[in-house]
Write a structure and sequence with these properties.
Length: about 130
């Protein structure tokens, strides 16, 4: 089975857009210092990537990993296009940015966690 381009590019754009909007709002309202904005951003990123992984409707990590690695690379490309013109190349010197890429690459694998499977089957029967 090859990669579904709609899921690949669609979820890549959705993940980036949600995080870009979230951090833009944080900057606009001055919510950028300390642990709280990073924790909120991390939680939103985990939720979004798990949703993306679940949307693929696959059952093994081997099926998710090509998508999630591609999404991680897409985040770096989008940062190059969207953030570098405003913040410069220094954006890539921040460990938080690289941590975010790792979360995007590994977060969708959490969709395989059995608890998410049970939750999905309970909500789909309603």
């Amino acid at each position: 089975m090859g990669l579904r381009l709609g899921a690949l590019f669609g979820w890549g754009i959705v993940i980036y857009a949600i995080m870009f909007l979230l951090w833009s709002a944080f900057v606009m309202y001055g919510f950028v210092e300390g642990f709280a904005p990073r924790a909120v951003g991390f939680l939103v990123l985990i939720i979004t990537t798990v949703m993306a992984g679940r949307a693929l409707r696959v059952h093994t990590w081997r099926d998710i990993l090509p998508y999630s690695l591609s999404w991680g690379i897409m985040m770096a490309v989008f940062d190059g296009l969207m953030s570098v013109p405003l913040a410069g190349w220094e954006v890539f010197l921040d460990w938080n940015v690289w941590f975010g890429y790792a979360v995007v690459a590994l977060g969708p694998l959490l969709a395989l966690y059995p608890r998410f499977e049970r939750f999905q089957s309970r909500t789909s029967s309603v």
